[in-house]
Amino acid sequence: MTDALHQFQTTCDQTGASPTADIRRIVADLGYPARWNWCWENYKPTVIELSRARGLRRHLEIGAGRDPLFQPDEATQLDLDITLNDISAHELSLAPSGYGKVLCDIAAPDAPDIVGRGAYDLAYCRMVMEHVPDVAAMWRNIGEALTPNGVALAFFPTLYALPYVMNRLIPEKLSRVLLETVFPERKPDGDDPKFPAHYDFCFSGEDRLMPMLRRAGFSNAVILPFWGYSYFSKFPILRDVDAAFNRLAERRDWRAASSFAYVVATK
């Protein structure tokens, strides 16, 4: 058992009936390990279980654009009222019909009034926060959009994993060319286009995130780190060396070397 997973399970056992214990048990029941593929495979089940266990029906999906988490028929089956948000009218136009749609910059001062203050039980986003220049403002606005007992889930890449450090240091035009050469689907007309990344507050350490989250109006948060990625899959030697380092970082719970994080914050 890794240090990170042992700490998570121990905290889950010790925190009693608190809101964070509730969230930790939901994730534990899904079989949380600190491996990168789990966070991708279980993001949707995590949203579903949070919704079911805590009665969170009114959803705001931030940065949903062309790729909302739930299709309209799924939302109907799960009895979810979902509103999609995106900063791009083009991206939002690619989403299927059958949802509420809100066009705005979620980090802008007027975002709470546009999306609706206290209008949602659950707000969530995946691979969005790294593209936001002012993540603290984004969290404040998410807090304003939630009901008093609302929950927010953010899934994002974390510093200082090597691919993101490279992406941060290399000029955007050059990093775009490199990424699109290795992964053609990341081209502007592909299924997963690249957007500029800032990595503001993209960390998995409680010491880096909790003060900011409390200033944003959240009383508690569970932060789940993950290690590993597939970016070097086409470079066998680099892939194997990097994977060995990530396994060591996971065992030692080196948060500064994590690759992704879930942050589940409660009002």
What this model shows, in words?
The protein is an alpha/beta fold. It has a single domain (3-266), classed as Vaccinia Virus protein VP39 (Rossmann fold), CATH 3.40.50.150. The chain is 43% helix and 18% strand. The chain is built from twelve helices and seven strands. It has a seven-stranded mixed sheet with strand order 3-2-1-4-5-7-6, sandwiched between helices. 39% of the residues are buried.
Short description:
Helix content is 43%, strand content 18%. The chain is built from twelve helices and seven strands.
In angstroms, what is the radius of gyration?
18 Å
> In DSSP terms, counting alpha (H) and pi (I) runs of 4 or more, how many helices?
12
Overall spatial form: globular
Q: Main sheet?
A: 7 strands, mixed
Secondary-structure element pattern, one letter each: HHHHEHEHEHEHEHHHEHE
CATH class descriptor: Alpha Beta
Which fold does the CATH topology refer to?
Rossmann fold
Q: Which second-level CATH architecture applies?
A: 3-Layer(aba) Sandwich
Whole-number mean pLDDT = 89
Features:
single chain, 267 residues, alpha/beta, Rossmann fold, seven-stranded mixed β-sheet, 12 helices, globular
Which SSEs are present, and which pair or pack?
Blueprint: H1 3-14, H2 19-29, H3 36-41, H4 43-54, E1 58-62, H5 72-77, E2 81-86, H6 89-93, E3 100-103, H7 111-115, E4 120-126, H8 135-145, E5 146-157, H9 162-169, H10 172-182, H11 206-215, E6 220-226, H12 236-252, E7 260-266
Parallel strand pairs: 1-2, 1-4, 2-3, 4-5
Antiparallel strand pairs: 5-7, 6-7
Helix pairs in contact: 1-2
Pfam families: Methyltransf_23
Protein name: SAM-dependent methyltransferase
Keywords: Methyltransferase, Transferase
